[in-house]
Amino acid sequence: QVSPALRTPRLPVWLCSISGRHSVLFGTDSRLLSDWRSERIFHLYFYSGQQEQTQTAHLTIDTHSHHWEEAQREEPCSPGKRRPALEMAIRTRWAGATVSWNGTDPFF
């Protein structure tokens, strides 16, 4: 039998399979589970367990950013418009969100 805490987590946790690698994306704010207003600007942490990742990545997610104001000079499919797979995974939950890596090199 599964513990009630495992069925209803106290903190937001997502198990990810990005580019064939398993990882975890999690937050430390329990309000993300119950209060949609907390989804304006919030922090998530990403850990892949891979040897090349030496520390957990701290990400700031802004769901009300103006993504349409990005430079329109490049075609959407050009290399300059490519986004890390983790950002694209985050945008499956928060479409159009801006992801700040806070000094960490983005994972591709």
TrEMBL record:
EC number: 3.4.19.12
Recorded superkingdom: Eukaryota
Broad class of enzyme this protein falls into: hydrolase
InterPro entries attached to this UniProt entry: MINDY-3/4_CD (IPR025257), MINY3/4 (IPR039785)
Assigned keywords, A-Z: Hydrolase, Protease, Thiol protease, Ubl conjugation pathway
UniProt entry tagged with the keyword Protease: yes
Record field: catalytic activity: Thiol-dependent hydrolysis of ester, thioester, amide, peptide and isopeptide bonds formed by the C-terminal Gly of ubiquitin (a 76-residue protein attached to proteins as an intracellular targeting signal)
GO molecular function: cysteine-type deubiquitinase activity; K48-linked deubiquitinase activity
GO BP terms in the entry: protein K48-linked deubiquitination; proteolysis
Deubiquitinating enzyme MINDY-3/4 conserved domain residues: 2-103
Stated family: Belongs to the MINDY deubiquitinase family. FAM188 subfamily.
Reported function: Hydrolase that can remove 'Lys-48'-linked conjugated ubiquitin from proteins.
Identification of the protein by name: Ubiquitin carboxyl-terminal hydrolase MINDY
Organism expressing this protein natively: Daphoenositta chrysoptera (varied sittella)
Protein encoded by which gene: Mindy4b_0
